Amino acid sequence: MANIVTSVCCVVLAAVVVVYAQRRSQQGARIQYERIGSDVTMQCGSLDTNASVTWKVNGTDVKARRREEGSRLVLMDVNMSSNGLYSCFQNPDGERRDQINLRVGLPPREPQVTCRSNTYPKGFYCSWHLQHSTYIPTDFEVNVQHNQRSLEVRRDEVHKNRCHVKFPELFSSFPYRVNVTAVNALGRKSNTITFEEFSIVKPDPPEKVVAKPIPNNVRRLEVTWSSPSTWPDVENFPLKYFLRYRPLIRDQWQHVELSDSTSHTITDAYVGKEYIIQLAAKDMEIGTWSDWSVAVHATPWTEEPKPITSTTEVEVLTDITPSPAPPSAKPRVGVAAGGCSTLLWSSHLLLACILLSIMW
């Protein structure tokens, strides 16, 4: 057992040493970015073009399509598998003369840019992304202008492809102009959008949505919610709300638009059916509706069966509950079936039958 543990430890230690050595080697290597599909030439340091060298990639022989021209290595039609750490060694002593970390990728295409104000009237934010990956590090340059002057742009601390801008003035008739440029080692590409202040106002969805049944009302649900916490001044810039609800058994929504209210009573719910409920918010005057809030579920109040609490109720239930039919007695020979004749087999029962007949 001890030998097995020792062997495993040695293997792990060797792997750690290899990884550490590779990282140290890569730190000292120069990075060369090249475009996918191109032919790539790598030069072994400052050696003469006629020098004899040997090339390795990640410590092994280079197997990709290539040409070796003295101190240069030419890779043909590179792709993502061409990435790696290339090392060249001068012959015949085998001294390493250079290391190149080859990274294959693409120049950026036009970035997609959107802007939105969910904190009106404080400011707005802009986000951007590339529809196609470049496979290599790509940075973004952002410029925002309003009324022929540049505005301060604050990059988001969490979302790397987002920035925040304060409104320089409210109710401005001048449009905003946002330019985002994607830049990497293989190229750059820009996109510019313009918009009016009111067109980008879009609150976040309402929060803390709660739906509860109303006691003794089998068709009602009480819905309450809070305005989005990101909306900074709900008193001066009130919101209106759009409520939608439907039973789970149906696909069609019912809608209610509400002005400056954070509660609503649904009065037409189906009895005993579970409902799904959502809300959206919008500034009273400008902008567009928010996305829908997280869905909540609720079922209207249902009356529970009353427990039996007295012997009177037991008697009533017994009277209205049909009794099982008694087993039929086999009639004796020569005697008609039914009535008291079926009881003649017992003298005691015969006497009881006669007494009942006299009473009636």
TrEMBL record:
InterPro entries: FN3_dom, FN3_IL27B_N, FN3_sf, Hematopoietin_rcpt_L_F3_CS, Ig-like_dom, Ig-like_dom_sf, Ig-like_fold, Ig_sub
GO (cellular component) term, any one: external side of plasma membrane
Topology class, membrane: Lipid-anchor; GPI-anchor
Localization terms from the record: Cell membrane
Annotated Ig-like domain residues: 37-88
Swiss-Prot/TrEMBL GO biological process terms: positive regulation of cell population proliferation
Segments passing through the bilayer: none
Domain of life according to the entry: Eukaryota
Keywords: Cell membrane, Disulfide bond, Glycoprotein, GPI-anchor, Immunoglobulin domain, Lipoprotein, Membrane, Receptor, Repeat, Signal
Signal sequence, start to end: 1-21
Residues in Fibronectin type-III domain copies: 107-204, 205-305
CDD domains reported for this sequence: FN3
Broad class of the protein's primary localization: membrane
Gene Ontology MF terms: interleukin-11 binding; interleukin-11 receptor activity
Pfam families: FN3_IL27B_N
Alphabetical list of PANTHER family matching this protein: CILIARY NEUROTROPHIC FACTOR RECEPTOR SUBUNIT ALPHA, CYTOKINE RECEPTOR
Family classification: Belongs to the type I cytokine receptor family. Type 3 subfamily.
Protein name per UniProt: Ciliary neurotrophic factor receptor subunit alpha
Organism: Chanos chanos
Lineage: Eukaryota, Metazoa, Chordata, Craniata, Vertebrata
